[in-house]
Amino acid sequence: MAIGFDYGTANCSVAYLEKGKVVPLPIDGESLYISSSLSAPTAESVSEYLFRCLNISPSDKIGEGVLRRAINTNKDLGIDVGDEDIKFGQTALDIYLEDPKDTYYVKSPKSFLGVAGLRPEQLSIFEDLVCAMMSNIRQACVKQIGEKANQAVIGRPVNFLGRGGEESNAQAQGILTRAAKRAGFEQVEFQFEPVAAGLDFEATLREDKNVLVVDIGGGTTDCSMIRMGPSWLGKKERQSTLLGHTGQRVGGNDLDIHLTFKTFMKEFGFGSKKQSGLEMPTTQFWNPIAINDVQAQRAFYALDNYKVLKQLYKDATEPKKLARLMLLHNETLGHALVRQAEQAKIQLASVEEFDARLDLIHEQLAVSVTQSELEEAIATPTEKVSQLVKEAVKQSNIVPDVIYMTGGSARSPILRQSVSCILPNIEIVSGNYFGSVTAGLARWASVCFD
Protein backbone atom coordinates (compact mmCIF):
# COMPACT_ATOMS: atom_id res chain seq x y z
CA MET A 1 0.00 0.00 0.00
CA ALA A 2 1.42 3.38 -1.04
CA ILE A 3 0.63 6.40 1.10
CA GLY A 4 1.31 10.11 1.00
CA PHE A 5 3.05 11.21 4.19
CA ASP A 6 3.21 14.87 5.18
CA TYR A 7 5.86 14.89 7.90
CA GLY A 8 5.20 18.50 8.81
CA THR A 9 6.86 20.97 11.13
CA ALA A 10 3.62 21.62 13.00
CA ASN A 11 1.53 18.52 12.20
CA CYS A 12 1.77 15.18 10.44
CA SER A 13 -0.88 13.51 8.32
CA VAL A 14 -1.21 10.64 5.85
CA ALA A 15 -3.57 9.57 3.06
CA TYR A 16 -3.86 7.13 0.18
CA LEU A 17 -5.67 7.13 -3.16
CA GLU A 18 -8.54 4.71 -3.74
CA LYS A 19 -10.40 4.71 -7.07
CA GLY A 20 -9.23 8.24 -7.75
CA LYS A 21 -10.37 9.55 -4.37
CA VAL A 22 -8.04 10.74 -1.61
CA VAL A 23 -8.69 8.88 1.65
CA PRO A 24 -7.15 10.54 4.75
CA LEU A 25 -6.27 8.21 7.63
CA PRO A 26 -6.96 8.97 11.31
CA ILE A 27 -3.62 8.71 13.10
CA ASP A 28 -4.30 10.19 16.55
CA GLY A 29 -7.49 8.66 17.81
CA GLU A 30 -10.16 10.03 15.47
CA SER A 31 -8.01 12.96 14.36
CA LEU A 32 -6.51 13.12 10.88
CA TYR A 33 -3.58 15.15 12.24
CA ILE A 34 -1.05 14.65 14.98
CA SER A 35 1.12 17.42 16.35
CA SER A 36 4.79 17.00 15.46
CA SER A 37 5.95 16.62 19.02
CA LEU A 38 7.33 13.98 21.35
CA SER A 39 7.93 13.66 25.08
CA ALA A 40 10.08 11.24 27.04
CA PRO A 41 11.59 10.90 30.52
CA THR A 42 15.03 11.80 29.13
CA ALA A 43 16.62 12.56 25.77
CA GLU A 44 18.32 9.16 25.91
CA SER A 45 15.01 7.32 26.36
CA VAL A 46 14.04 7.60 22.69
CA SER A 47 16.96 5.58 21.34
CA GLU A 48 16.44 2.85 23.92
CA TYR A 49 12.67 2.86 23.27
CA LEU A 50 13.22 2.17 19.57
CA PHE A 51 15.53 -0.73 20.32
CA ARG A 52 13.80 -2.34 23.30
CA CYS A 53 10.14 -1.67 22.59
CA LEU A 54 9.93 -1.54 18.80
CA ASN A 55 12.86 -3.79 17.88
CA ILE A 56 14.27 -1.04 15.63
CA SER A 57 18.07 -1.12 15.40
CA PRO A 58 20.36 1.85 14.71
CA SER A 59 21.22 2.53 11.09
CA ASP A 60 25.02 2.67 11.54
CA LYS A 61 27.95 2.41 13.97
CA ILE A 62 27.42 5.95 15.23
CA GLY A 63 23.84 5.09 16.11
CA GLU A 64 25.00 1.97 17.89
CA GLY A 65 27.28 4.11 20.04
CA VAL A 66 24.43 6.50 20.81
CA LEU A 67 22.27 3.54 21.83
CA ARG A 68 24.93 2.09 24.16
CA ARG A 69 25.38 5.44 25.89
CA ALA A 70 21.62 5.87 26.16
CA ILE A 71 21.16 2.48 27.81
CA ASN A 72 23.98 3.16 30.28
CA THR A 73 22.70 6.66 31.10
CA ASN A 74 19.15 5.47 31.71
CA LYS A 75 20.44 2.62 33.84
CA ASP A 76 22.47 5.04 35.98
CA LEU A 77 19.37 7.22 36.41
CA GLY A 78 17.22 4.23 37.34
CA ILE A 79 14.98 4.66 34.29
CA ASP A 80 13.46 1.48 32.86
CA VAL A 81 12.18 2.52 29.44
CA GLY A 82 8.82 1.00 28.52
CA ASP A 83 6.14 1.26 25.83
CA GLU A 84 4.20 3.94 27.70
CA ASP A 85 7.14 6.26 28.38
CA ILE A 86 7.27 7.86 24.94
CA LYS A 87 4.27 10.01 23.99
CA PHE A 88 3.37 11.84 20.81
CA GLY A 89 1.23 14.75 19.68
CA GLN A 90 -1.08 16.57 22.08
CA THR A 91 -0.47 13.94 24.78
CA ALA A 92 3.24 14.77 24.69
CA LEU A 93 2.49 18.47 25.06
CA ASP A 94 0.11 17.86 27.97
CA ILE A 95 2.76 15.88 29.82
CA TYR A 96 5.34 18.60 29.21
CA LEU A 97 3.04 21.36 30.43
CA GLU A 98 2.32 19.41 33.62
CA ASP A 99 6.03 19.00 34.41
CA PRO A 100 8.25 21.02 32.03
CA LYS A 101 11.35 20.77 34.19
CA ASP A 102 11.49 16.97 34.31
CA THR A 103 10.12 16.16 30.86
CA TYR A 104 12.18 15.90 27.70
CA TYR A 105 10.01 17.55 25.06
CA VAL A 106 10.69 18.14 21.38
CA LYS A 107 8.44 20.14 19.08
CA SER A 108 9.03 20.18 15.34
CA PRO A 109 12.25 18.12 14.99
CA LYS A 110 11.92 18.78 11.26
CA SER A 111 13.08 22.34 12.01
CA PHE A 112 16.46 21.00 13.10
CA LEU A 113 17.10 19.00 9.93
CA GLY A 114 19.78 20.42 7.67
CA VAL A 115 21.47 22.40 10.45
CA ALA A 116 25.23 22.69 9.89
CA GLY A 117 27.89 22.20 12.53
CA LEU A 118 26.23 19.35 14.42
CA ARG A 119 28.21 16.32 15.52
CA PRO A 120 27.39 12.93 13.95
CA GLU A 121 26.02 11.79 17.32
CA GLN A 122 23.57 14.69 17.37
CA LEU A 123 22.40 13.89 13.85
CA SER A 124 21.88 10.28 14.93
CA ILE A 125 19.71 11.43 17.84
CA PHE A 126 17.58 13.52 15.47
CA GLU A 127 17.20 10.46 13.26
CA ASP A 128 15.94 8.47 16.25
CA LEU A 129 13.40 11.21 17.08
CA VAL A 130 12.07 11.24 13.53
CA CYS A 131 12.04 7.43 13.39
CA ALA A 132 10.02 7.17 16.61
CA MET A 133 7.43 9.63 15.29
CA MET A 134 7.23 7.94 11.89
CA SER A 135 6.90 4.51 13.46
CA ASN A 136 4.03 5.71 15.63
CA ILE A 137 2.24 7.06 12.55
CA ARG A 138 2.93 3.98 10.43
CA GLN A 139 1.52 1.71 13.15
CA ALA A 140 -1.66 3.83 13.11
CA CYS A 141 -1.82 3.43 9.31
CA VAL A 142 -1.54 -0.34 9.51
CA LYS A 143 -4.38 -0.46 12.04
CA GLN A 144 -6.59 1.65 9.77
CA ILE A 145 -6.05 0.04 6.38
CA GLY A 146 -5.54 -3.51 7.60
CA GLU A 147 -2.53 -4.18 5.42
CA LYS A 148 1.16 -3.44 5.26
CA ALA A 149 1.90 0.25 4.60
CA ASN A 150 5.33 -0.17 3.06
CA GLN A 151 5.54 2.54 0.38
CA ALA A 152 5.51 6.26 1.05
CA VAL A 153 5.95 9.55 -0.75
CA ILE A 154 7.15 12.01 1.86
CA GLY A 155 6.83 15.75 1.42
CA ARG A 156 9.88 17.96 1.73
CA PRO A 157 10.40 21.72 1.53
CA VAL A 158 12.28 23.22 -1.38
CA ASN A 159 14.99 24.20 1.11
CA PHE A 160 15.07 22.85 4.65
CA LEU A 161 17.04 25.96 5.65
CA GLY A 162 17.61 29.34 4.05
CA ARG A 163 21.32 28.62 3.98
CA GLY A 164 23.45 25.51 3.49
CA GLY A 165 22.27 24.81 -0.06
CA GLU A 166 22.12 21.27 -1.40
CA GLU A 167 24.49 19.93 1.24
CA SER A 168 21.99 20.92 3.90
CA ASN A 169 19.09 19.50 1.90
CA ALA A 170 20.94 16.21 1.35
CA GLN A 171 21.66 15.87 5.07
CA ALA A 172 18.02 16.47 5.97
CA GLN A 173 16.58 14.17 3.30
CA GLY A 174 19.09 11.48 4.30
CA ILE A 175 17.83 11.57 7.89
CA LEU A 176 14.21 11.36 6.73
CA THR A 177 15.01 8.44 4.39
CA ARG A 178 16.86 6.39 6.99
CA ALA A 179 14.26 7.13 9.67
CA ALA A 180 11.38 6.14 7.36
CA LYS A 181 13.01 2.86 6.32
CA ARG A 182 13.82 1.96 9.92
CA ALA A 183 10.17 2.69 10.75
CA GLY A 184 9.08 0.10 8.16
CA PHE A 185 8.63 1.96 4.87
CA GLU A 186 10.51 -0.23 2.42
CA GLN A 187 10.24 2.17 -0.52
CA VAL A 188 10.51 5.93 -0.03
CA GLU A 189 10.18 8.76 -2.53
CA PHE A 190 10.06 12.53 -2.00
CA GLN A 191 8.11 15.36 -3.54
CA PHE A 192 8.34 19.11 -2.97
CA GLU A 193 5.52 20.18 -0.64
CA PRO A 194 4.29 23.06 -2.84
CA VAL A 195 4.25 20.76 -5.87
CA ALA A 196 2.21 18.23 -3.89
CA ALA A 197 -0.27 20.94 -2.89
CA GLY A 198 -0.47 21.97 -6.53
CA LEU A 199 -1.18 18.41 -7.64
CA ASP A 200 -4.22 18.31 -5.36
CA PHE A 201 -5.44 21.67 -6.69
CA GLU A 202 -4.87 20.46 -10.25
CA ALA A 203 -7.52 17.78 -9.78
CA THR A 204 -10.13 20.57 -9.54
CA LEU A 205 -9.11 22.42 -12.73
CA ARG A 206 -11.11 22.18 -15.93
CA GLU A 207 -8.58 24.06 -18.06
CA ASP A 208 -4.79 24.47 -18.04
CA LYS A 209 -3.43 27.33 -15.94
CA ASN A 210 -0.16 28.77 -14.66
CA VAL A 211 -0.51 28.45 -10.90
CA LEU A 212 1.67 30.02 -8.21
CA VAL A 213 1.49 27.73 -5.18
CA VAL A 214 2.38 29.50 -1.91
CA ASP A 215 2.72 26.93 0.87
CA ILE A 216 3.25 28.60 4.26
CA GLY A 217 3.71 25.83 6.77
CA GLY A 218 4.84 25.68 10.36
CA GLY A 219 8.54 25.71 9.58
CA THR A 220 9.06 26.69 5.95
CA THR A 221 7.52 28.73 3.17
CA ASP A 222 7.77 27.29 -0.34
CA CYS A 223 6.61 28.76 -3.61
CA SER A 224 6.30 26.90 -6.91
CA MET A 225 5.14 28.18 -10.27
CA ILE A 226 3.54 25.22 -12.06
CA ARG A 227 1.73 24.64 -15.31
CA MET A 228 -1.19 22.44 -14.39
CA GLY A 229 -4.53 21.23 -15.56
CA PRO A 230 -6.15 18.38 -17.52
CA SER A 231 -3.20 18.14 -19.96
CA TRP A 232 -0.86 16.92 -17.21
CA LEU A 233 -3.17 15.34 -14.64
CA GLY A 234 -1.84 11.95 -13.50
CA LYS A 235 1.35 12.08 -15.57
CA LYS A 236 4.64 11.07 -13.95
CA GLU A 237 6.85 13.20 -16.17
CA ARG A 238 6.20 16.76 -14.99
CA GLN A 239 9.60 18.41 -15.37
CA SER A 240 8.49 20.74 -18.16
CA THR A 241 5.60 22.00 -16.03
CA LEU A 242 7.76 23.03 -13.05
CA LEU A 243 8.77 26.60 -13.85
CA GLY A 244 10.25 27.95 -10.64
CA HIS A 245 10.83 27.03 -7.00
CA THR A 246 11.83 29.09 -3.97
CA GLY A 247 11.88 28.16 -0.33
CA GLN A 248 13.26 29.16 3.03
CA ARG A 249 12.91 28.21 6.68
CA VAL A 250 10.32 30.79 7.62
CA GLY A 251 6.83 29.79 8.69
CA GLY A 252 4.29 29.68 11.45
CA ASN A 253 6.88 28.90 14.11
CA ASP A 254 8.75 32.07 13.17
CA LEU A 255 5.59 34.16 13.45
CA ASP A 256 4.99 32.76 16.93
CA ILE A 257 8.60 33.28 18.02
CA HIS A 258 8.72 36.87 16.78
CA LEU A 259 5.42 37.66 18.47
CA THR A 260 6.70 36.14 21.73
CA PHE A 261 9.92 38.13 21.49
CA LYS A 262 8.31 41.49 20.74
CA THR A 263 5.45 41.27 23.24
CA PHE A 264 5.99 38.72 26.01
CA MET A 265 9.72 39.05 26.61
CA LYS A 266 9.34 42.61 27.92
CA GLU A 267 7.91 40.96 31.03
CA PHE A 268 11.19 39.05 31.40
CA GLY A 269 13.44 42.10 31.11
CA PHE A 270 13.85 42.58 27.37
CA GLY A 271 14.52 46.27 26.70
CA SER A 272 15.36 47.01 30.33
CA LYS A 273 18.73 48.30 31.49
CA LYS A 274 21.51 47.39 33.84
CA GLN A 275 22.38 49.75 36.67
CA SER A 276 25.33 50.85 34.54
CA GLY A 277 22.88 52.17 31.94
CA LEU A 278 23.65 49.47 29.39
CA GLU A 279 20.80 47.45 27.92
CA MET A 280 20.35 43.80 28.74
CA PRO A 281 21.88 41.44 26.10
CA THR A 282 19.26 40.65 23.47
CA THR A 283 20.30 37.02 22.99
CA GLN A 284 19.23 36.13 26.52
CA PHE A 285 15.65 36.92 25.54
CA TRP A 286 15.73 35.46 22.04
CA ASN A 287 17.47 32.13 22.71
CA PRO A 288 14.94 30.65 25.18
CA ILE A 289 12.06 31.03 22.73
CA ALA A 290 13.94 30.16 19.51
CA ILE A 291 12.47 26.67 19.61
CA ASN A 292 13.51 25.96 16.01
CA ASP A 293 17.19 26.75 16.67
CA VAL A 294 18.99 23.93 18.46
CA GLN A 295 22.13 26.00 19.08
CA ALA A 296 20.16 28.87 20.65
CA GLN A 297 18.25 26.47 22.89
CA ARG A 298 21.43 24.76 24.02
CA ALA A 299 23.11 28.11 24.76
CA PHE A 300 20.28 29.43 26.93
CA TYR A 301 19.47 26.28 28.87
CA ALA A 302 23.09 25.36 29.57
CA LEU A 303 23.95 25.17 33.27
CA ASP A 304 26.72 27.73 32.83
CA ASN A 305 24.26 30.25 31.45
CA TYR A 306 22.36 30.27 34.74
CA LYS A 307 25.38 31.93 36.33
CA VAL A 308 25.19 34.65 33.68
CA LEU A 309 21.48 35.15 34.40
CA LYS A 310 22.15 35.47 38.12
CA GLN A 311 24.67 38.22 37.42
CA LEU A 312 22.19 40.00 35.15
CA TYR A 313 19.65 39.80 37.97
CA LYS A 314 22.11 41.46 40.37
CA ASP A 315 22.87 44.20 37.82
CA ALA A 316 19.25 44.80 36.79
CA THR A 317 17.27 47.98 37.37
CA GLU A 318 14.14 45.79 37.18
CA PRO A 319 15.20 42.64 39.06
CA LYS A 320 11.67 41.23 39.28
CA LYS A 321 11.61 40.81 35.50
CA LEU A 322 15.02 39.13 35.47
CA ALA A 323 13.82 36.78 38.19
CA ARG A 324 11.18 35.61 35.70
CA LEU A 325 13.92 34.99 33.12
CA MET A 326 15.77 32.83 35.66
CA LEU A 327 12.52 30.93 36.29
CA LEU A 328 12.08 30.46 32.55
CA HIS A 329 15.55 28.85 32.50
CA ASN A 330 14.96 26.62 35.52
CA GLU A 331 11.53 25.40 34.41
CA THR A 332 12.29 25.31 30.64
CA LEU A 333 9.20 27.38 29.84
CA GLY A 334 10.18 28.54 26.36
CA HIS A 335 7.81 26.19 24.54
CA ALA A 336 4.91 27.22 26.77
CA LEU A 337 5.45 30.92 25.98
CA VAL A 338 5.59 30.32 22.24
CA ARG A 339 2.43 28.24 22.44
CA GLN A 340 0.61 31.18 24.06
CA ALA A 341 1.83 33.44 21.27
CA GLU A 342 0.47 30.95 18.74
CA GLN A 343 -2.93 31.13 20.42
CA ALA A 344 -2.79 34.94 20.35
CA LYS A 345 -1.90 34.90 16.64
CA ILE A 346 -4.85 32.64 15.84
CA GLN A 347 -7.32 34.76 17.82
CA LEU A 348 -6.07 38.02 16.33
CA ALA A 349 -7.13 36.85 12.89
CA SER A 350 -10.70 37.66 13.95
CA VAL A 351 -10.48 40.08 16.92
CA GLU A 352 -8.76 43.43 17.38
CA GLU A 353 -7.19 42.61 20.75
CA PHE A 354 -6.42 39.47 22.74
CA ASP A 355 -5.39 38.97 26.36
CA ALA A 356 -2.74 36.25 26.53
CA ARG A 357 -2.24 34.42 29.83
CA LEU A 358 1.29 33.42 30.81
CA ASP A 359 1.52 30.70 33.46
CA LEU A 360 4.76 31.19 35.41
CA ILE A 361 4.18 28.53 38.09
CA HIS A 362 3.56 30.90 41.03
CA GLU A 363 2.52 33.91 38.95
CA GLN A 364 -0.06 34.49 36.25
CA LEU A 365 0.66 37.31 33.79
CA ALA A 366 -1.89 38.89 31.46
CA VAL A 367 -0.38 40.46 28.35
CA SER A 368 -2.64 42.30 25.92
CA VAL A 369 -1.74 42.01 22.22
CA THR A 370 -3.40 43.95 19.39
CA GLN A 371 -3.60 43.27 15.66
CA SER A 372 -1.27 46.18 14.93
CA GLU A 373 1.28 44.84 17.43
CA LEU A 374 1.09 41.44 15.75
CA GLU A 375 1.65 42.98 12.33
CA GLU A 376 4.66 44.93 13.61
CA ALA A 377 6.09 41.91 15.46
CA ILE A 378 6.01 39.63 12.41
CA ALA A 379 7.22 42.23 9.91
CA THR A 380 10.54 40.44 9.33
CA PRO A 381 9.13 36.97 8.51
CA THR A 382 6.36 38.62 6.46
CA GLU A 383 8.99 40.34 4.32
CA LYS A 384 10.83 37.04 3.85
CA VAL A 385 7.63 35.42 2.57
CA SER A 386 7.12 38.35 0.19
CA GLN A 387 10.63 37.96 -1.21
CA LEU A 388 10.06 34.24 -1.87
CA VAL A 389 6.91 35.06 -3.85
CA LYS A 390 8.75 37.68 -5.90
CA GLU A 391 11.64 35.34 -6.63
CA ALA A 392 9.36 32.51 -7.80
CA VAL A 393 7.65 34.89 -10.24
CA LYS A 394 11.04 36.18 -11.41
CA GLN A 395 12.44 32.67 -11.93
CA SER A 396 9.51 31.56 -14.06
CA ASN A 397 9.21 34.88 -15.90
CA ILE A 398 5.45 34.33 -15.88
CA VAL A 399 2.60 36.14 -14.23
CA PRO A 400 0.35 33.44 -12.74
CA ASP A 401 -3.28 32.99 -13.72
CA VAL A 402 -4.14 32.16 -10.11
CA ILE A 403 -2.42 31.99 -6.72
CA TYR A 404 -3.10 28.90 -4.62
CA MET A 405 -2.28 29.51 -0.94
CA THR A 406 -2.08 26.60 1.46
CA GLY A 407 -0.48 25.60 4.76
CA GLY A 408 -1.71 26.52 8.23
CA SER A 409 -0.13 29.97 8.25
CA ALA A 410 -1.64 30.85 4.87
CA ARG A 411 -4.80 31.66 6.82
CA SER A 412 -3.10 34.76 8.23
CA PRO A 413 -4.78 37.91 6.84
CA ILE A 414 -1.44 39.72 7.15
CA LEU A 415 0.41 37.21 4.96
CA ARG A 416 -2.42 36.98 2.43
CA GLN A 417 -2.43 40.76 2.12
CA SER A 418 1.34 40.81 1.58
CA VAL A 419 0.98 38.35 -1.32
CA SER A 420 -1.93 40.34 -2.77
CA CYS A 421 0.16 43.51 -2.73
CA ILE A 422 2.82 41.82 -4.88
CA LEU A 423 0.31 40.47 -7.44
CA PRO A 424 -2.67 42.79 -6.93
CA ASN A 425 -4.85 41.68 -9.82
CA ILE A 426 -4.44 37.93 -9.45
CA GLU A 427 -7.11 35.80 -7.82
CA ILE A 428 -6.06 34.08 -4.58
CA VAL A 429 -7.76 30.77 -3.82
CA SER A 430 -7.36 28.23 -1.05
CA GLY A 431 -8.33 24.63 -0.47
CA ASN A 432 -7.71 22.56 2.60
CA TYR A 433 -5.06 24.59 4.43
CA PHE A 434 -3.81 21.57 6.37
CA GLY A 435 -4.61 18.69 4.02
CA SER A 436 -3.71 19.79 0.50
CA VAL A 437 -0.05 18.68 0.72
CA THR A 438 -1.05 15.28 2.10
CA ALA A 439 -3.68 14.81 -0.61
CA GLY A 440 -1.19 15.73 -3.33
CA LEU A 441 1.40 13.34 -1.90
CA ALA A 442 -1.21 10.56 -1.94
CA ARG A 443 -1.92 11.32 -5.60
CA TRP A 444 1.78 11.30 -6.42
CA ALA A 445 2.26 8.01 -4.52
CA SER A 446 -0.31 6.36 -6.80
CA VAL A 447 1.74 7.56 -9.78
CA CYS A 448 5.17 6.67 -8.36
CA PHE A 449 4.31 3.19 -7.20
CA ASP A 450 1.79 2.24 -9.87
User: Into which percentage range does the β-strand content fall?
Assistant: 15-25%
The largest pleated sheet is described as: 6 strands, mixed
Can you give the mean pLDDT? 94
- What low-confidence regions span 5 or more consecutive residues with pLDDT below 50? none
Rg, nearest Å: 22 Å
Number of strands: 16
Q: Choose one word for the global shape.
A: globular
Class based on secondary structure composition and strand pairing: alpha/beta
Q: Give the oligomeric state.
A: single chain
Helical run tally: 16
Helix content: 40-55%
Q: For the terminal residues, how far apart are their CA atoms?
A: 10 Å
Explain this structure to me?
The chain has 450 residues and is α/β, with parallel strands linked by helices. 45% of the residues lie in helices and 20% in strands. It has 16 helices and 16 strands. It has helices at 45-53, 61-77, 89-98, 120-145, 165-182, 193-202, 252-263, 283-286, 294-301, 303-315, 319-331, 334-347, 371-377, 379-396, 413-422, 436-448, and strands at residues 2-7, 11-18, 21-24, 34-35, 37-40, 87-88, 104-107, 151-156, 187-192, 209-216, 221-228, 242-248, 353-359, 364-370, 402-406, 427-430. The strands form 4 sheets. Strands 1, 2, 3, 4, 8 and 9 form a 6-stranded mixed sheet that branches.
Can you describe this structure in just a few lines?
With 450 residues, the chain is of the alpha/beta class. It has 16 helices and 16 strands.
Write the layout of secondary structure elements.
Layout: E1 2-7, E2 11-18, E3 21-24, E4 34-35, E5 37-40, H1 45-53, H2 61-77, E6 87-88, H3 89-98, E7 104-107, H4 120-145, E8 151-156, H5 165-182, E9 187-192, H6 193-202, E10 209-216, E11 221-228, E12 242-248, H7 252-263, H8 283-286, H9 294-301, H10 303-315, H11 319-331, H12 334-347, E13 353-359, E14 364-370, H13 371-377, H14 379-396, E15 402-406, H15 413-422, E16 427-430, H16 436-448
Parallel strand pairs: 1-8, 8-9, 10-15, 15-16
Antiparallel strand pairs: 1-2, 2-3, 2-4, 5-6, 5-7, 10-11, 11-12, 13-14
